[in-house]
Automatic annotation (TrEMBL):
PANTHER family: ISOPENTENYL-DIPHOSPHATE DELTA-ISOMERASE. The keyword Lipid metabolism applies. Gene3D superfamilies: Nucleoside Triphosphate Pyrophosphohydrolase. Residues 83-236 form the Nudix hydrolase domain. This is isopentenyl-diphosphate Delta-isomerase. Its EC number is 5.3.3.2. Pathway: Isoprenoid biosynthesis; dimethylallyl diphosphate biosynthesis; dimethylallyl diphosphate from isopentenyl diphosphate: step 1/1. GO terms for molecular function: isopentenyl-diphosphate delta-isomerase activity; metal ion binding.
Length: 269
């Protein structure tokens, strides 16, 4: 059993400004645009995505206990059997309680061009993202702050780790379109309401938009018709309890949804 240090996590905090501004995307440099040609697993990824695949993620048993580490390529390529690893999904809401979505960049190895929640990634197998001060949750929050900056250009210091409110964990496994890549994760669900400025990285994000609950349900309906795509973890979260958590969050009752004991499991895991 892992100990979550969540005391005081639900104290209200003032917003940092109400204006939300999207800056002009940075142009692709040559390191982003070049496609790798060859016979290796990473040869068809662009250089930046290939570099990120060498980062080491946290391998887990079914109870979320750490059992080792592996590179992202060894934990996400189907030929490696998709070992279970730790992840997080951040849901950012603005002052109107609209959810920020991103469409994953077309150069991503997994689920390219899919719509998903605000930010989804992995804590790395490094001290500050494993269990700093004995808190697994703080490690996940630290990783989430890092990736909000990396993917969406959120300025350093704009989000404190403790502002990311933990809800639960989900366990799922899914293969991307061609079956070459996939995910097998215990995913920490984190909510935050805050108005922020964004400068999305074009190597990570193709598009962003805020949606109401009704608008998001329309997107899921369009996905059922094959007119758009949403990531499997996002669908699992929203189909199970995500919309009710959203309502509770808006009502100031998110603490009623927190589960630090159980792991929600989806599919054949």
């Amino acid at each position: 059993m892992i100990g979550f240090m969540i005391a005081g996590l639900y104290r209200s905090r003032p917003f940092v400004g109400n204006a939300l501004r999207f800056n002009s995307p940075k142009p692709f440099g040559s390191r982003h645009a070049v496609r790798r040609m060859g016979t290796g697993i990473l040869d068809n990824l662009d250089d930046e995505q290939a570099r990120l695949m060498e980062e080491r993620v946290i391998l887990l048993d079914r109870d979320d206990n750490v059992i080792g580490s592996a590179t992202k390529v060894d934990s996400h390529h189907a030929s490696k059997q998709l070992p279970l690893h730790r992840a997080f999904s951040v849901f950012v809401f603005d002052s109107q309680f609209r959810m920020l979505l991103q469409r994953r960049a077309k150069v991503k190895a997994t689920f390219a061009s899919y719509w998903t929640n605000t930010c989804c990634s992995h804590p790395l197998h490094v001290a500050e993202e494993l269990s700093p001060g004995g808190s697994t949750l703080r490690g996940v929050q630290n990783a989430a702050v890092r990736k909000l900056s990396h993917e969406l250009g959120v300025k350093e210091g704009s989000v404190a780790p403790e502002e990311l409110k933990y809800i639960t964990r989900i366990h799922y496994k899914a293969y991307s379109d061609q079956g070459e890549w996939g995910e097998h994760e215990i995913d920490y669900v984190l909510f935050i309401q805050k108005d922020l400025e964004y400068d999305p990285s074009p190597n990570e994000v193709d598009d962003v938009k805020f949606v109401t609950a009704s608008e998001l349900k329309d997107i899921f309906d369009q996905a059922k018709l094959g007119k758009t795509k949403v990531t499997p973890w996002f669908k699992h979260i929203m189909d199970s309890s995500g919309f009710s958590w959203w309502e509770k969050f808006q009502a100031g009752q998110l603490q009623d949804c927190v589960d630090t004991v159980n792991i929600m499991r989806f599919g054949d895991v």
